[in-house]
Write a structure and sequence with these properties.
By secondary structure, the chain is of the alpha+beta class. The chain has 2 domains: about 5-95 and about 165-180, 2-Layer Sandwich (Glycoprotein, Type 4 Pilin); about 100-165, 2-Layer Sandwich (Dna Ligase, domain 1), CATH 3.30.1490.150. The protein is about 25% helix and about 25% strand. It contains 4 helices and 9 strands. The chain has helices at about 5-20, 60-70, 125-130, 135-145, and strands at about 35-40, 45-50, 90-95, 100, 110-115, 120-125, 160-165, 165-170, 180. The strands form 2 sheets. Strands 2-1-3-8-9 form a 5-stranded antiparallel beta sheet, with helices on one face. A 4-stranded antiparallel beta sheet has the order 4-7-5-6. β5 and β6 (about 120-125) form a beta hairpin. The relative contact order is 0.18. The model has no long low-confidence stretch (mean pLDDT about 95).
Length: about 190
Amino acid sequence: MDLREGEKLVRLARRAIESHLKGEELKVKGGEPRGVFVTLLKHGELRGCIGFPQPILPLYEGVVEAAKAAAFRDPRFLPLREEELGEVTIEVSVLTKPKPVKPEEVKVGKHGLIVKKGFFSGLLLPQVPVEWGWDREEFLSQTCVKAGLSPLAWKGKDVELYAFTAEVFKEVSPGGKVVRLKLEPEEPEE
Protein backbone atom coordinates (compact mmCIF):
# COMPACT_ATOMS: atom_id res chain seq x y z
CA MET A 1 0.00 0.00 0.00
CA ASP A 2 1.48 3.36 -0.96
CA LEU A 3 1.45 6.63 0.97
CA ARG A 4 -1.29 8.08 -1.23
CA GLU A 5 -3.65 5.21 -0.34
CA GLY A 6 -2.68 5.50 3.33
CA GLU A 7 -3.43 9.22 3.28
CA LYS A 8 -6.82 8.48 1.73
CA LEU A 9 -7.61 6.08 4.60
CA VAL A 10 -6.59 8.57 7.31
CA ARG A 11 -8.67 11.32 5.66
CA LEU A 12 -11.61 8.90 5.43
CA ALA A 13 -11.34 8.12 9.15
CA ARG A 14 -11.44 11.85 9.98
CA ARG A 15 -14.42 12.40 7.65
CA ALA A 16 -16.28 9.52 9.32
CA ILE A 17 -15.82 11.14 12.75
CA GLU A 18 -16.77 14.60 11.46
CA SER A 19 -19.89 13.20 9.75
CA HIS A 20 -20.96 11.39 12.91
CA LEU A 21 -20.52 14.57 14.98
CA LYS A 22 -22.84 16.37 12.51
CA GLY A 23 -25.44 13.59 12.75
CA GLU A 24 -24.73 12.49 9.18
CA GLU A 25 -23.98 8.99 7.95
CA LEU A 26 -20.96 8.49 5.71
CA LYS A 27 -21.54 5.69 3.19
CA VAL A 28 -18.53 4.15 1.47
CA LYS A 29 -17.78 1.11 -0.63
CA GLY A 30 -14.65 -0.52 -1.89
CA GLY A 31 -11.42 -2.11 -0.90
CA GLU A 32 -10.53 -5.71 -0.28
CA PRO A 33 -11.55 -7.11 3.11
CA ARG A 34 -8.74 -6.27 5.56
CA GLY A 35 -8.25 -6.08 9.28
CA VAL A 36 -8.02 -2.44 10.32
CA PHE A 37 -7.59 -0.37 13.49
CA VAL A 38 -8.06 3.35 14.00
CA THR A 39 -6.17 5.03 16.83
CA LEU A 40 -6.90 8.52 18.11
CA LEU A 41 -4.22 10.45 19.98
CA LYS A 42 -4.87 13.70 21.86
CA HIS A 43 -1.64 15.61 22.49
CA GLY A 44 0.23 12.32 21.94
CA GLU A 45 -1.84 10.39 24.51
CA LEU A 46 -4.25 7.59 23.60
CA ARG A 47 -7.81 8.90 23.17
CA GLY A 48 -9.37 5.83 21.53
CA CYS A 49 -8.41 2.73 19.59
CA ILE A 50 -10.77 0.17 18.12
CA GLY A 51 -10.71 -2.02 15.07
CA PHE A 52 -11.20 -5.35 13.45
CA PRO A 53 -8.31 -7.84 13.62
CA GLN A 54 -9.90 -10.15 11.05
CA PRO A 55 -10.68 -9.11 7.45
CA ILE A 56 -14.46 -9.07 7.96
CA LEU A 57 -15.26 -5.78 6.20
CA PRO A 58 -14.17 -4.16 2.94
CA LEU A 59 -11.28 -1.82 3.80
CA TYR A 60 -13.06 1.55 3.41
CA GLU A 61 -16.11 0.42 5.37
CA GLY A 62 -13.82 -1.02 8.05
CA VAL A 63 -11.99 2.31 8.38
CA VAL A 64 -15.28 4.21 8.76
CA GLU A 65 -16.65 1.80 11.37
CA ALA A 66 -13.37 1.59 13.31
CA ALA A 67 -13.01 5.40 13.31
CA LYS A 68 -16.51 5.91 14.70
CA ALA A 69 -16.00 3.18 17.29
CA ALA A 70 -12.62 4.59 18.40
CA ALA A 71 -14.08 8.09 18.71
CA PHE A 72 -17.41 7.29 20.32
CA ARG A 73 -17.49 3.72 21.68
CA ASP A 74 -14.09 2.95 23.21
CA PRO A 75 -15.16 1.97 26.76
CA ARG A 76 -11.96 3.42 28.24
CA PHE A 77 -12.95 6.96 27.25
CA LEU A 78 -15.92 9.30 27.11
CA PRO A 79 -17.25 9.84 23.57
CA LEU A 80 -15.19 12.35 21.59
CA ARG A 81 -16.61 15.88 21.67
CA GLU A 82 -16.63 18.11 18.60
CA GLU A 83 -14.33 20.65 20.25
CA GLU A 84 -11.72 17.89 20.82
CA LEU A 85 -11.42 16.88 17.16
CA GLY A 86 -9.01 19.73 16.37
CA GLU A 87 -6.63 18.36 19.04
CA VAL A 88 -6.70 14.75 17.86
CA THR A 89 -4.38 13.04 15.40
CA ILE A 90 -5.56 9.92 13.62
CA GLU A 91 -3.60 6.75 12.90
CA VAL A 92 -4.85 3.94 10.63
CA SER A 93 -3.29 0.47 10.82
CA VAL A 94 -4.10 -1.93 7.96
CA LEU A 95 -3.49 -5.51 9.08
CA THR A 96 -2.56 -8.77 7.44
CA LYS A 97 -4.58 -11.80 8.45
CA PRO A 98 -3.41 -13.09 11.87
CA LYS A 99 -1.54 -16.42 11.76
CA PRO A 100 -0.55 -18.78 14.57
CA VAL A 101 2.95 -18.06 15.89
CA LYS A 102 5.34 -19.49 18.49
CA PRO A 103 6.72 -17.09 21.12
CA GLU A 104 10.26 -17.34 19.74
CA GLU A 105 9.01 -16.33 16.26
CA VAL A 106 7.59 -12.99 17.43
CA LYS A 107 9.54 -10.01 16.06
CA VAL A 108 9.25 -6.62 17.77
CA GLY A 109 8.86 -3.91 15.14
CA LYS A 110 7.29 -6.32 12.68
CA HIS A 111 4.48 -8.20 14.40
CA GLY A 112 1.32 -7.26 16.18
CA LEU A 113 0.05 -9.90 18.59
CA ILE A 114 -3.20 -11.54 19.60
CA VAL A 115 -3.29 -13.73 22.71
CA LYS A 116 -6.27 -16.03 23.35
CA LYS A 117 -7.11 -18.32 26.24
CA GLY A 118 -10.68 -19.49 26.68
CA PHE A 119 -12.92 -16.43 26.70
CA PHE A 120 -9.95 -14.08 27.19
CA SER A 121 -8.40 -12.26 24.25
CA GLY A 122 -6.02 -9.32 23.88
CA LEU A 123 -4.40 -7.53 20.96
CA LEU A 124 -1.52 -5.10 20.65
CA LEU A 125 -0.59 -3.42 17.37
CA PRO A 126 3.02 -3.70 16.09
CA GLN A 127 3.82 -0.06 16.86
CA VAL A 128 3.04 -0.46 20.60
CA PRO A 129 6.17 -2.38 21.70
CA VAL A 130 8.35 -0.07 19.58
CA GLU A 131 6.83 3.04 21.20
CA TRP A 132 7.31 1.58 24.69
CA GLY A 133 10.78 0.11 24.05
CA TRP A 134 9.73 -3.44 24.90
CA ASP A 135 11.65 -6.58 24.02
CA ARG A 136 9.92 -9.76 22.82
CA GLU A 137 9.15 -11.13 26.30
CA GLU A 138 7.71 -7.83 27.53
CA PHE A 139 5.58 -7.60 24.38
CA LEU A 140 4.22 -11.10 24.95
CA SER A 141 3.60 -10.34 28.64
CA GLN A 142 1.85 -7.03 27.98
CA THR A 143 -0.41 -8.64 25.38
CA CYS A 144 -1.40 -11.22 28.00
CA VAL A 145 -2.14 -8.43 30.50
CA LYS A 146 -4.28 -6.71 27.84
CA ALA A 147 -6.23 -9.98 27.59
CA GLY A 148 -6.80 -10.02 31.35
CA LEU A 149 -4.34 -12.88 31.85
CA SER A 150 -1.24 -13.16 33.99
CA PRO A 151 1.89 -11.67 32.35
CA LEU A 152 3.47 -15.11 31.92
CA ALA A 153 0.37 -16.81 30.50
CA TRP A 154 2.01 -16.87 27.03
CA LYS A 155 4.27 -19.67 28.31
CA GLY A 156 1.26 -21.95 28.88
CA LYS A 157 0.31 -24.71 26.47
CA ASP A 158 -3.37 -23.68 26.49
CA VAL A 159 -2.67 -20.15 25.21
CA GLU A 160 -3.02 -19.36 21.50
CA LEU A 161 -0.71 -16.75 19.95
CA TYR A 162 -1.33 -15.09 16.60
CA ALA A 163 0.89 -12.59 14.80
CA PHE A 164 0.09 -10.11 12.07
CA THR A 165 1.85 -7.22 10.38
CA ALA A 166 0.44 -3.77 9.73
CA GLU A 167 0.98 -0.81 7.46
CA VAL A 168 0.51 2.25 9.64
CA PHE A 169 -0.35 5.75 8.43
CA LYS A 170 -0.75 8.73 10.73
CA GLU A 171 -1.32 12.45 10.80
CA VAL A 172 1.67 14.53 11.91
CA SER A 173 -0.74 17.15 13.28
CA PRO A 174 -4.56 17.19 13.58
CA GLY A 175 -5.90 17.12 10.01
CA GLY A 176 -2.35 17.70 8.73
CA LYS A 177 0.23 15.85 6.68
CA VAL A 178 0.00 12.04 6.67
CA VAL A 179 3.13 9.88 6.94
CA ARG A 180 3.84 6.17 6.96
CA LEU A 181 4.99 5.05 10.40
CA LYS A 182 8.36 3.34 10.21
CA LEU A 183 8.66 0.50 12.69
CA GLU A 184 12.13 -0.42 13.80
CA PRO A 185 12.94 -4.13 13.76
CA GLU A 186 14.22 -5.75 16.92
CA GLU A 187 17.98 -6.10 17.13
CA PRO A 188 19.15 -9.68 16.55
CA GLU A 189 19.95 -11.56 19.74
CA GLU A 190 23.61 -12.35 20.34
